[in-house]
Amino acid sequence: MSRRPGNSFMQLWGAPLLLSVLTLIGLVSALTGDGGLHYWVSWLLLGLPVVLCAWYAWRPQRKRRR
């Protein structure tokens, strides 16, 4: 099975880039908004990295294949 060289960048950096863009949107929403929808968007998007880190920290570890 051969891998295409152009596809490996998004496989490695796709999720971190998406998470950083969503976090940046949450930060801008928190800094520029004044109540209502801005607060909900900022809470949701700024809390997302915390939730994901907690989920990865407490998930059961899979056994590695040799």
From TrEMBL:
Keywords: Membrane, Transmembrane, Transmembrane helix. The chain crosses the membrane at residues 40-58. This is DUF4175 domain-containing protein. It comes from Amnimonas aquatica.
